């Protein structure tokens, strides 16, 4: 690793001051499980690592039935999936976070980091997209909100400017008759990066026989996590039946733009898009019915 | 001369301080700076678990933690598992069940097992295999390791009078 | 020779004591290669080729030397000059530091030593090399194609034992022949053939290679490393550095896995040269990426098998062609694969052709029964197909055609006493095989495998301590618990408690020549040497007792730890008592044993695999797995079981997910433990073991080495299970989910 300096600000203000001054040669360090690997292979070569773990605003984890869930960017995954409100209201977040790496990775990795790392294969991002999550971003003197569906701009790149930091991820309060789910395909049973990942969100009508709205987002089949709006358009108002879900799977396959690499061929990934989309939508429906 | 940072930490209950560059991982600090070589390096990118330690009560792969990040924090390493000259029941269970062949992954497995049984004293076989999935072993095929973990749970319960 | 003792009367052998090195290993105290420290130690890193095939036009390391903290740089110019015409030494030195050409991505070009490893790494970025790129051959088909670039421009193919003038990328073509396969095929009622291909995989040991070298002012060299053989390392260092073995000491540290991959040396000579220049000890530890790209994986390639049978199931002819990747330098295990390919089957008409093919990949090294798994992937599937077509149970079919003692292997030797039939019987009667497997997408497959095992030299010394305990000095590095099983054999022969034997694994200056910990030889040969050393101690103690008592040597009897004399029933003394009297009665006693066994029995093994596939994703789950193996006599059953389970796990990974994934530029994309997918604890079921014991009469305790044969049958057993689960036969490895889906979508 190239020589790097290290600072650990204890307030958001001092963090933002550092980023204003030298944000272009600084990388934010939360869990470190992605960024340190990148530094070692010299894919990133910052002069300064700014540790965000002691900034209070980035450690917030709170739920309000009206406004939803606020997750500080530095909250580690193990805290997230153990939280009673997250388990109750956002089981899809538990789906995603319990499979990122293994137990020791989850001891350090953060949701904020998974989002900012902006890997096309990130397991948390499709879930956040289908739940309609937003990102609160600050710089000295400015705050803005960005929809998570627009946060990633390419493999490994995001909308953050060099003087900005991700403060929180905000997930809307859950609606009635709705549920979300995330699943991925990996060749082993743990440890692997998603060959394909699918996050689905389903809201049914009161009698549970028609789709009111459906969101599906795919990991690992495009340069950024893919929001399949064609499925949202198609399923809205349609009956809940196998034929329509099959068609949704087909739409996912058609929307995907996967490449062939060491984790899978393009054809195989397209095939999996259809299989996993159907399975995930069905799981979301099961969750609504089971509630 | 590069700048070194002064780090103060508690390792296995004892105060330890050391100097390191920010780019030195916790694993490197333990092995090369402090001289505690019980924690092993297998891959240096979080994928084998040989470097597992317990940091502030959580299992972590020390290759993905920087030495500077543990300033003011508490760690447990393999060197702190035995109680003086008395082996911990987990260590005894690994020996009695022949759960090690070359032994390089063993410190990581013992730490991960301790952390598992601290959280879940009576895990099912599936829960054991899930918790240990980040620890790779190439020699044993895991079978005797799982037996050792099950035996550890029994021994710990017996010791506590359960 | 026959067993010296009735196995029913073994006191120590067959029990499961704790291993003597156990406490250090569970407390983190054991010193492995990377843990070694000494005063003044500096750190080395190696600069490696980014190209699979290129000429080196120039190397400039001035900038590296200028970096503060860098102490020395070495290249191939620092190695001795290769004598003209000595191709072998050119190859050996060439793999350590490339001269003139780089032959694979990761090929070492230069070594740098610096005050700390980060500075050494920075220095690598300052070395400038000018390359002329050449086209690369990345598999046997490409390499064997006559239009491909010659990798070794000045070497020729050896064919049927004679050097030819053909310069292609085939280093050797050999053949084994028995009887007449054409007649045999003419007589057949059914012929099945298939070409089965595998790709390069790695042993996957968790500890990367690590070595420290100190070249002293007096010209002596000491190396401390993780190794499977300190004596062969010493020989190689002498050869490569051109210094006498008397000047070299290799001190083996604990080793974190080897499986054959830590038999060759890689960075030791570079560390030695750097130490010579720097005047300080130099430690080099490989990164995981270097382990994948720059050590010795096992080859891919193909095995084509054709077998003819009568309708009653009797085999009439067997033919095979094997072409394996040697990597950048000759020496793939195709020779070993060719003698294993039909080893389990009695057939008087066999023809086997083997090709050792040079490709632009790292030089291959041994991986647990090298060559045999590649061959078995083919044979065991063709046999499976035949038994399915004839409607004969696959185990019965193998039993019908199994070799017996006295039958010939295709390369000549006759099979000694062996346990193949007993292994097959145990498979048939095993709980797993007796249980029905029902349901869609499920299948059960079986296979058998063989490894011939080797003997080779081992030496042990035993010294008697005054408290009746003994020190056992041996030179076999312990990768799987062998210290314990060797000590157990010494204890059994000396008729003292296991706990009274204190084994030490020592360096090349302290014990007699001991060959590698590999080839399934350690419990066999080093155990045999320990037994001989124990007999020597016993004989000397008998002589001492006779002197103390003033009776004839022949009258003294030693049994169950007690000396007595036929000359006088009153005379009686325990081993412990006599040990306490040695100083005053003539001095301490030390015994020696050395052996290079002429006869060694092989080991047969079997795998039974039940699996289920998800037909939508192609993912397979192993539901149940049993490993069966002939251990001759299991000295320490827990460690025998451990070998069987470990080999099975590696075989399962090899079958389902492991592969070297290359892109179109000849660069390995998955050289990390994230994407080189070895099984985790969640990927494997419990692995049942059944130990069969058909003692090997060429060992005093009937031991057969068990380290290797167990990795041979898992891949074909899984392939045979896949056939029954999917209806399709797999001709390629790995049988990963995309491959399964692709097969399922193929028209039948």
- Kindly report the CATH topology of the largest domain in chain B: Ubiquitin-like (UB roll)
Number of helices of chain B: 5
The side-by-side strand order for the widest beta sheet of chain B comes to 2-1-5-3-4
pLDDT averaged residue by residue of chain B: 97
CATH architecture of the largest domain in chain C, by name, is: 2-Layer Sandwich
Classified by CATH, the class of the largest domain in chain B is Alpha Beta
Q: Kindly give the count of domains of chain C.
A: 3
Q: Can you tell me the residue ranges of chain C where pLDDT is under 50 for at least 5 consecutive residues?
A: none
Encode the helix/strand succession of chain B as letters: EEHEEEHHHH
Helix content of chain B: 25-40%
* 3D shape of chain C: globular
Shape summary of chain B: globular
User: What's the tally of helices of chain C?
Assistant: 20
Considering the protein shown, what is the CATH homologous superfamily of the largest domain in chain C? Answer: Aldehyde oxidase/xanthine dehydrogenase, molybdopterin binding domain
Task: Describe the protein.
The complex is a heterotrimer of chains A (291), B (162) and C (748). Chain A is built from eleven helices and 14 strands. Chain A has 291 residues and is of the alpha+beta class. In chain A, the strands form four sheets. Chain A has a five-stranded antiparallel sheet with strand order 4-5-10-6-7. A four-stranded antiparallel sheet of chain A has the order 11-12-13-14. Chain A is globular, with a radius of gyration of 19 Å. The termini of chain A are far apart. Chain B has five helices and five strands, in the order E-E-H-E-E-E-H-H-H-H. Chain B has a five-stranded mixed sheet, with helices on both faces. In chain B, a hairpin with a 2-residue loop joins strand 3 and strand 4. Chain B is globular. Chain C has 748 residues and is an alpha+beta fold. At the A-C interface, helix 11 of A face helix 4 and helix 20 of C.
């Amino acid at each position: 690793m190239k020589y790097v300096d290290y600072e650990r600000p204890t307030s958001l203000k001092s963090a933002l001051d550092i980023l204003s001054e030298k944000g272009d040669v600084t990388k934010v360090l939360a869990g470190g499980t992605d960024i340190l690997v990148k530094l070692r292979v010299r894919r990133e070569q910052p002069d300064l690592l700014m540790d965000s773990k002691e900034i209070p605003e980035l450690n917030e984890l709170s739920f309000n039935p009206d406004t939803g869930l606020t997750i500080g960017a530095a909250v580690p995954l193990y805290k997230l999936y153990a939280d009673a409100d997250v388990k109750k209201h956002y089981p899809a977040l538990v789906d995603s976070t319990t499979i990122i790496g293994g137990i020791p990775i989850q001891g350090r990795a953060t949701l904020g980091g998974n989002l900012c790392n902006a890997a096309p294969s990130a397991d948390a991002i499709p879930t956040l997209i289908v739940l309609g999550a937003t990102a609160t971003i600050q710089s000295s003197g400015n705050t803005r909100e960005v929809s998570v569906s627009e946060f990633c701009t390419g493999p490994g790149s995001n909308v953050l400017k060099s003087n900005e930091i991700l403060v929180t991820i905000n997930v809307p309060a859950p609606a009635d008759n709705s549920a979300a789910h995330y699943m991925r395909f990996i060749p082993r049973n743990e440890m692997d990066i998603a060959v394909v990942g699918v996050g689905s969100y389903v809201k049914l009508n009161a009698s549970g026989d028609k789709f009111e709205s459906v969101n599906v987002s795919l990991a690992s089949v495009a340069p950024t996590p893919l929001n399949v709006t064609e499925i949202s358009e198609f399923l809205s108002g349609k009956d809940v039946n196998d034929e329509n879900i099959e068609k949704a799977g087909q739409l996912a396959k058609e929307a995907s733009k996967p490449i062939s690499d060491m984790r899978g061929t393009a054809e195989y990934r397209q095939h999996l898009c259809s299989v996993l989309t159907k399975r995930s939508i069905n799981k979301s429906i099961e969750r609504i019915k089971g509630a | 001369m590069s700048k070194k940072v002064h780090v103060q930490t508690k390792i296995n209950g004892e105060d330890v301080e050391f100097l390191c560059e920010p780019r030195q991982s916790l694993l490197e600090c333990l092995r090369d700076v402090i001289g505690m070589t019980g924690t092993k390096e297998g891959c240096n990118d979080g994928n084998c678990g040989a470097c597992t330690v317990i940091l502030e009560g959580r299992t972590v792969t020390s290759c993905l933690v920087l030495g500077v990040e543990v300033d003011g924090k508490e760690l447990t390493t393999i060197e702190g598992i035995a109680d003086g000259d008395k082996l911990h029941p987990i260590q005894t269970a690994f020996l009695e069940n022949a759960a090690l062949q070359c032994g390089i992954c063993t410190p990581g497995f013992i730490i991960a097992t301790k952390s598992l049984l601290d959280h879940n004293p009576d895990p099912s076989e599936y829960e054991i295999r899930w918790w240990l999935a980040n620890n790779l072993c190439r020699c044993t095929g895991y079978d005797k390791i799982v037996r050792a973990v099950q035996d550890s749970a029994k021994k710990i319960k017996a010791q506590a009078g359960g | 020779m026959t067993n010296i003792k009735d196995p029913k009367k073994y006191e120590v052998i067959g029990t499961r004591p704790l291993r003597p090195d156990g406490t250090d290993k569970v407390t983190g105290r054991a010193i492995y290669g990377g843990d070694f420290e000494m005063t003044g130690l500096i750190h080395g890193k190696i600069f490696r080729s980014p190209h699979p095939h290129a000429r080196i036009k120039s190397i400039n390391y001035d900038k590296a030397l200028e970096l503060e903290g860098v102490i020395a740089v070495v290249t191939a110019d620092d190695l001795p000059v290769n004598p003209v015409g000595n191709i072998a030494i050119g190859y050996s030195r060439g793999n350590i530091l490339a001269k003139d050409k780089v032959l694979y991505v990761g090929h070492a070009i230069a070594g740098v030593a610096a005050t700390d490893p980060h500075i050494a790494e920075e220095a690598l970025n300052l070395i400038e090399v000018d390359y002329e790129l050449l086209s690369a051959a990345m598999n046997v088909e490409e390499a064997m194609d006559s239009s491909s670039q010659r990798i070794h421009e000045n070497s020729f193919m050896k064919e049927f034992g004679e050097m030819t003038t053909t310069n292609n990328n085939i280093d050797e073509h050999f053949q084994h022949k028995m009887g007449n396969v054409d007649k045999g095929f003419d007589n057949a009622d059914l012929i099945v053939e298939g070409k089965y291909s595998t790709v390069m995989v790695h042993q996957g040991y968790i500890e990367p290679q690590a070595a420290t070298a100190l070249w002293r002012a007096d010209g002596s060299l000491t190396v401390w490393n993780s190794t499977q053989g300190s004596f062969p390392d010493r020989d190689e260092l002498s050869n490569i550095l051109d210094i006498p073995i008397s000047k070299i000491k290799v001190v083996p540290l604990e080793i974190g896995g080897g499986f054959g991959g830590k038999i060759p040396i890689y960075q030791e000579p570079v560390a030695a040269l750097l130490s010579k220049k720097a005047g300080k000890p130099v430690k080099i530890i490989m990164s995981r990426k270097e382990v994948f790209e720059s050590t010795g994986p096992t080859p891919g390639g193909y095995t084509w098998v054709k077998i003819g049978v009568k309708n009653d199931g009797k085999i009439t002819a067997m033919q095979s062609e094997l072409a394996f990747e040697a990597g950048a330098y000759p020496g793939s295990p195709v020779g070993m694969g060719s003698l294993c390919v039909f080893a389990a089957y009695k057939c008087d008409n066999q023809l086997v052709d083997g090709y050792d093919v040079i490709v632009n990949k790292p030089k291959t090294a041994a991986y647990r029964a090298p060559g045999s798994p590649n061959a078995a992937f083919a044979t065991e599937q063709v046999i499976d197909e035949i038994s399915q077509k004839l409607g004969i149970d696959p185990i019965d079919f193998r039993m019908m055609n199994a070799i017996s003692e006295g039958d010939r292997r295709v390369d000549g030797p006759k099979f000694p006493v062996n346990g193949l039939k007993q292994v097959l019987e145990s498979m048939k009667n095993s709980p797993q095989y007796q249980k029905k497997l029902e349901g869609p997408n499920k299948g059960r497959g079986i296979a058998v495998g063989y490894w011939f095992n080797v003997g080779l030299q081992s030496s042990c010394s035993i010294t008697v301590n005054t408290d009746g305990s003994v020190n056992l000095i041996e030179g076999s590095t312990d990768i799987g618990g062998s210290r314990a099983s060797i000590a157990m054999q010494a204890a059994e022969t000396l008729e003292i408690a296991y706990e009274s034997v204190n084994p030490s694994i020592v360096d090349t200056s302290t014990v007699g020549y001991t060959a590698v910990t590999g080839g399934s030889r350690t419990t066999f040969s080093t155990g045999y040497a320990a037994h001989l050393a124990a007999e020597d101690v016993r004989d000397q103690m008998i002589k001492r007792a006779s002197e103390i008592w003033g009776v004839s040597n022949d009258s003294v009897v030693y049994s169950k730890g007690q000396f007595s004399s036929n000359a006088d029933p009153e005379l009686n003394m325990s081993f412990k008592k006599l040990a306490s009297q040695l100083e005053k009665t003539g001095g301490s006693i030390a015994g020696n044993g050395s052996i290079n066994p002429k006869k060694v029995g092989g080991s047969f093994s079997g795998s039974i695999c039940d699996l289920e596939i998800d037909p939508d994703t192609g993912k397979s789950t192993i539901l149940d797995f049993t490993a069966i193996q002939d251990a001759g006599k299991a000295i320490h059953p827990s460690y025998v079981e451990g070998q069987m389970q470990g080999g099975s796990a590696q075989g399962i990974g090899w079958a389902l997910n492991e592969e070297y994934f290359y892109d179109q530029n000849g660069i390995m994309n998955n050289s990390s433990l994230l994407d080189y997918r070895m099984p985790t604890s969640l990927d494997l079921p419990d692995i049942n073991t059944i130990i069969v014991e058909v003692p090997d009469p060429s060992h005093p305790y009937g031991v057969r080495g068990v380290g290797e044969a167990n990795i041979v049958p898992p891949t074909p057993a899984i392939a045979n299970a896949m056939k029954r689960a999917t209806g399709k036969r797999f001709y390629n490895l790995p049988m990963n989910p995309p491959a399964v889906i692709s097969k399922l979508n193929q028209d039948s």
